[in-house]
Design brief:
By secondary structure, this protein is α+β, with helices and mostly antiparallel strands. The chain has a single domain, classed as Beta Polymerase, domain 2. The protein is built from 4 helices and 4 strands.
């Protein structure tokens, strides 16, 4: 197996692990509406062991930053960073092409 094939295999394993973690999170917290993978892993750029950059959309309004914590998604197989948005925040930011969210959704993959 070539180095490129090994990298692809590792990347695919990481994405499968993220999909499993997202499925478990959605089962435990049905208010999670959508989860998107963005960044180098989603774009198949960079190292195959790149972490999972996640956008988590929740049917809930958040009074403060700490109330978003339960919606962070973790897996032992892949380091993750989750950006948690309420459904309303997501819809508003998605409309603004200059927002970080809108710019990254362009190349994101829904998990």
């Amino acid at each position: 197996m070539s180095a490129a094939e090994t990298e692809d295999l590792h990347r695919d394993q990481n994405i499968r692990a993220l999909r499993r973690a997202v499925g478990e999170a959605k089962a435990a917290r049905p208010e999670i509406l959508k989860v998107f993978l963005f960044g180098s892993l989603a774009q198949e750029k960079g190292k195959p062991d790149a972490g999972g950059e996640l956008i988590v959309v929740v049917r809930k309004n958040f009074p403060d930053l700490f109330s978003r914590s339960p919606y962070q998604i973790f897996t032992r197989a892949v380091p993750t960073h989750s950006l948690v948005y309420s459904e309303n925040e997501f819809e508003e930011l998605q409309k603004d092409p200059s927002s970080f969210l809108a710019q990254n959704l362009a190349t994101a993959v829904e998990l």
